[in-house]
What we know:
The protein has helices at 2-14, 45-51, 64-81, 175-194, 196-206, 212-234, 242-263, 270-290, 302-331, 337-360, and strands spanning 25-33, 36-44, 82-86, 89-91, 98-101, 106-113, 120-125, 136-143, 148-154, 160-164. It is an alpha+beta fold. The chain folds into two domains: 2-20 and 195-360; 25-173, no CATH class. A six-stranded mixed beta sheet has the order 5-6-2-1-8-9. A four-stranded antiparallel beta sheet has the order 4-3-7-10.
Amino acid sequence: xxxxxxxxxxxxxxxxxxxxxxxxxxxxxxxxxxxxxxxxxxxxxxxxxxxxxxxxxxxxxxxxxxxxxxxxxxxxxxxxxxxxxxxxxxxxxxxxxxxxxxxxxxxxxxxxxxxxxxxxxxxxxxxxxxxxxxxxxxxxxxxxxxxxxxxxxxxxxxxxxxxxxxxxxxxxxxxxxxxxxxxxxxxxxxxxxxxxxxxxxxxxxxxxxxxxxxxxxxxxxxxxxxxxxxxxxxxxxxxxxxxxxxxxxxxxxxxxxxxxxxxxxxxxxxxxxxxxxxxxxxxxxxxxxxxxxxxxxxxxxxxxxxxxxxxxxxxxxxxxxxxxxxxxxxxxxxxxxxxxxxxxxxxxxxxxxxxxxxxxxxx
Length: 363
């Protein structure tokens, strides 16, 4: 029984390291101008490289030269995978897409079209069929003044956005914000359920608990910390890049695992550690959307951030509600209890150490 438990924890710790913090999200910003249409598509470099390999010398490091050499292939892949239809006619871009990379490890592809729609615009994201099934793309349509016209979350199952012209105020009244809230709420749940680093951190905190109230305090302080982070990020008070946050998240996992080994099942004061480290993890959640350039035309970054983080909280509470009874049950088993916390904590520390190295030395 104990060996099976360790096997499960080991798989949780080491499965899919490269996607430990990737929500499978991209964005497209469409600008309707008087003399044409501009489109800017943003992907994480990781998503692009899965389809357009950039590491030509196979040394596990993509240099600036290799990125520059891959730009034509990236532009061609995006251009072939996106179909813009204006007033019933499929339109081709004026030239090959312009590809650029930013410091947040994103790739941006800019396309320009000569025509302007007078009746209808349709954008079909066919490239979603080549990305993982859970990948989402958030599309916003704005006019040249930056005013919102339409927005939608696309997926493999629904990869088409249709916008009629002229745009009436009544047609846009409340639908976009309600849809955006639901889309990012569900994305937040999906992110925490596939965010192995966050789940392992939460598991490492809870493995030492034996009863309801210590666990509730840990979860509550973690939630409060995320809420504070949400406010700081939403109002641009604090904006920490993922290049700093991601290694810190890995370090928190390693630290908690080591502390579990040193302190054993002593949970006194654990909620304060949870609160401080929860702030770090919260910045990781916020960075996912902010660095991808996600923004609702009605509420800016605030609504996507709020609903995404709310989904994260609901997801982690659900996970805790499922895992905690199992942890408490194992603590009551005489053959398992003495080794449960030490062995799980060692595995968590090793996983945190791996992520720390991967996100600093290997990134």
